[in-house]
Automatic annotation (TrEMBL):
Its membrane topology: Peripheral membrane protein
UniProt-annotated location(s): Cell membrane
Keyword Transport: yes
Name the UniProt record assigns to this protein: TOBE domain-containing protein
Pfam families linked: HTH_1, TOBE
Annotated GO CC locations: plasma membrane
Keyword Transport: yes
Residue span, HTH lysR-type domain: 22-69
UniProt entry keywords in alphabetical sequence: Transport
Main location: membrane
Domain Transport-associated OB type: 161-220
């Protein structure tokens, strides 16, 4: 699976992602949240806080037992096992996509510092990775590296200077069994294609014509020089 791929399940504004699945699997293996956090080189306090956040949106995930002959411990709930199954099904659905679509934005490099460049495109400026000096480039975006938001769902920009954001309009929605393909017009010559889960589609109550916002990390792009 491509390194840029990010599967996520959403509920009540909270995203369940790869790192969360790893934490639950570690709890199942270690039978202890503390030991699970240690095995993943994470602090117990952060792991505990993350579990609490997930449970507020997704329901009970970890049952904690105190004392007893074995000294207590933690185990996953049936709900957690169901969540892991859904997440793996989602990952498989993405991986089974014959070819992940890419969007190409042409532009001019107006700033270049180290491996990051600022590229002026018809849709606005884009921060992207650049591997060699060039005046004109094409910025390539994979559909599975783009996150879609509704105007009311956009997270704070604090600490996210390397993330690109564009306002646009959903022009086409292709609903699959687990994944929906959404085409977004952001004012470029070609629209941007992104992939979201059916759960997210329902949560957003998304229809063609709705205003949306897309975002993607600079590190999830690649550029090609144009001669």
């Amino acid at each position: 699976m491509d390194a840029g791929f990010e599967a996520r399940l959403r509920a009540k504004g909270v995203s369940f992602e790869k790192a969360d699945a790893a934490l639950l699997r570690a709890v199942e293996e270690q039978q202890s949240l503390n030991a699970a956090a240690d095995s993943l080189n994470r602090s117990f306090s952060r792991a505990h806080k993350r579990i609490k956040t997930l449970e507020q949106a997704l329901g009970p995930l970890v049952e904690r037992q105190r004392g007893g002959v074995d000294g207590g411990g933690s185990e996953l709930t049936a709900n957690a096992h169901d969540l892991l199954t859904r997440f793996e099904r989602l990952r498989t659905a993405y991986a089974g996509t014959a070819a992940v679509e890419e969007t190409v934005l042409s532009g001019v490099v107006i700033d270049h510092k180290a491996e990051l460049a600022t590229v002026k495109t018809a849709a606005g400026t884009v921060r992207a990775l650049i591997t060699e000096p060039a005046d004109r480039v094409q910025v390539v975006l994979r559909a599975d590296a783009i996150t879609l938001h509704t105007p009311d769902d956009v997270p704070s920009t604090a600490g996210m200077s390397a993330r690109n954001r564009f306002h646009g309009t959903a022009t086409e929605i292709d609903r699959g069994e687990s994944i929906a393909r959404v085409v977004v017009d952001i004012g470029a010559k070609t629209p941007v294609t992104t992939l979201i889960t059916r759960d997210t589609l329902v949560e957003f109550d998304l229809e063609a014509g709705n205003n949306v916002i897309i975002s993607f990390k600079a590190t999830a792009t690649r550029t090609t020089p144009v001669e």
